[in-house]
Amino acid sequence: xxxxxxxxxxxxxxxxxxxxxxxxxxxxxxxxxxxxxxxxxxxxxxxxxxxxxxxxxxxxxxxxxxxxxxxxxxxxxxxxxxxxxxxxxxxxxxxxxxxxxxxxxxxxxxxxxxxxxxxxxxxxxxxxxxxxxxxxxxxxxxxxxxxxxxxxxxxxxxxxxxxxxxxxxxxxxxxxxxxxxxxxxxxxxxxxxxxxxxxxxxxxxxxxxxxxxxxxxxxxxxx
Length: 223
Ligand SMILES: [Zn+2]
Fold this sequence. Notes:
The chain is α+β, with helices and mostly antiparallel strands. Among the domains are: 4-63, Arc Repressor Mutant, subunit A, CATH 1.10.10; 145-220, Roll (SH3 type barrels), CATH 2.30.30.90. It is 40% helix and 18% strand. The chain contains 8 helices and 8 strands; from the N terminus they run αααββαααββαβββαβ. β5 and β6 (194-199) form a beta hairpin. It starts with a helix and ends with a strand. 32% of the residues are buried. The structure holds zinc ion. Zinc ion (ZN) binds at residues 78, 82, 97, 100, 163-164.
């Protein structure tokens, strides 16, 4: 059983691999986890010896099959715990990430599968992130784009939002920007870095910066 630190590294590599177009590097992992590159390098040598990653020093890090399976197991635990805390325990969606960061490393498989049963085997967590099945399979992802890359005049449906910033999640809920919400992109001013949107069932426009919009993943919706 890998330690919680190893699990956090594997999860980080998986996340970077899914979100970035370029190869995963020691620098990228260091930034993601808030540690020094030297710390990451020695961990990569360790993970490489354990057969979890392929590590080419000063070049790239790739998850091996075993490492990927392990990372997806942690992601499954994280997202099921978040779903359970919101659906069953009625915690707010903005306050479950920190709890899940701890519980994902300690919860037993038996308890986790019981939670999955109680929830009716959900496919997505409250933030719209897909929940891998017990074998590490993830539902095929629609082609998602950050709202920050959207074009004025187009209509979008929110599919996923970044789960880790509770202030951001509070703001999203106050403005009813939830997975499933449909919005029209009214203005996109790349020079000022500002986006103006309007929910399809509302008349008042809402402004947000490109940085916040980058954390909202959308798919095109019929106008
Ligand atoms: Zn989370």
